[in-house]
Design goal:
Layout (H helix, E strand, L loop, with lengths): L2 E10 L6 E11 L4 E5 L6 H8 L7 E6 L2 E2 L5 H11 E4 L11 H11 L4 H14 L15 H13 L5 E5 L7 H18 L2 E5 L3 H5 L3 E6 L2 E4 L2
Parallel strand pairs: 3-8, 3-9, 6-7, 7-8
Antiparallel strand pairs: 1-2, 1-4, 4-5, 9-10
Helix pairs in contact: 3-4
Bound molecules: adenosine-5'-triphosphate and magnesium ion.
The site of adenosine-5'-triphosphate has 13 residues, from β2 and α1.
Length: about 220
């Protein structure tokens, strides 16, 4: 298992008292596996991804990533584990507006200490794959919403992480572009043994995943 979560609980403090969002969530992700997660707005999908991605801490439960118990690591080791092993596609793209598309894809690689040549070659390779090489020097506000979404997916993949956590990666895309993106994701999962956990409401996207899960009353269950 590349990721294993057991009995994860999470509440948010609010003025009306604690708001229980996740209750005893257990979930494992195998190398190269594609899993979809659905559930109504506000049920805790983004909360779950943040916890699995070590961006937020659970109140209870254990999380193992690449065999390491995250609770036993110091902050620096967690950051390192995150940049090496996890890629994020956020619900809203979170590209850095003051940098070009190419620079947005260079930054995570620099954080890993890759050479400029290796990093530049990787950017060119990825942008070519999704026909966005002509947008290399554009800033995020000078490309379309769907193009931003695709760049956000590429950024999650740029360091070849074993785990990609994606929050509605096809949310703003038309049917054909969504299909192309999913095809790319499937190929990567197969070729590089990358596991994907994809939050999606799109039945076509879920149909391409090996397992379909849903969040119901704070727990993760197989989708009906
Ligand atoms: N920082 C916070 N403090 C208090 N409540 C929060 C906080 N973040 C999220 N919530 C609440 O927790 C619940 C779960 O939020 P979350 O963002 O995980 O939902 P979601 O399933 O991703 O929804 P959507 O499909 O709309 O993106 C919601 O009811 C939300 O209002
Ligand atoms: Mg969400």
């Amino acid at each position: 298992m590349i990721l294993k979560a057991e009995n994860i609980c999470k509440s948010y403090p609010t003025s009306a008292g604690p708001l229980e969002v996740l209750r005893d969530v257990s979930l494992s992700l195998k190398e190269g596996e594609l899993i979809s997660v659905a559930g109504p707005s506000g049920c805790g999908k983004s909360t779950l991804l943040n916890i699995l991605g070590t961006l937020d801490q659970p109140d209870k439960g254990t999380l193992e990533i690449t065999g390491k118990n995250v609770a036993l690591l110091d902050d620096e080791s967690i950051s390192r584990l995150r940049s090496e092993s996890i890629g994020f596609v956020f619900q809203f793209h979170h590209l850095l507006p003051e940098f070009t598309i190419a620079e947005n894809l260079m930054i995570p690689q620099r954080l890993l200490g890759r050479s400029e040549k290796t990093a530049t070659d990787r950017v060119t390779e990825l942008l070519s794959k999704v026909n966005l090489l002509p947008r290399y020097n554009h800033r995020p506000n000078a490309i379309s919403g769907g193009e931003r979404q695709r760049v956000a997916v590429l950024r999650a993949l740029v360091n070849e992480p074993g785990i990609v956590l994606a929050d509605e990666p096809t949310g703003n895309l038309d049917v054909e572009t969504a299909r192309q993106l999913m095809e790319m994701i499937q190929n990567l999962a197969k070729d590089f043994n990358q596991a994907f956990l994809i939050v999606t409401h799109n039945p076509d996207v879920a149909a391409l995943c090996e397992r379909n899960l849903t969040i119901n009353e704070g727990t993760v269950i197989p989708a009906p």
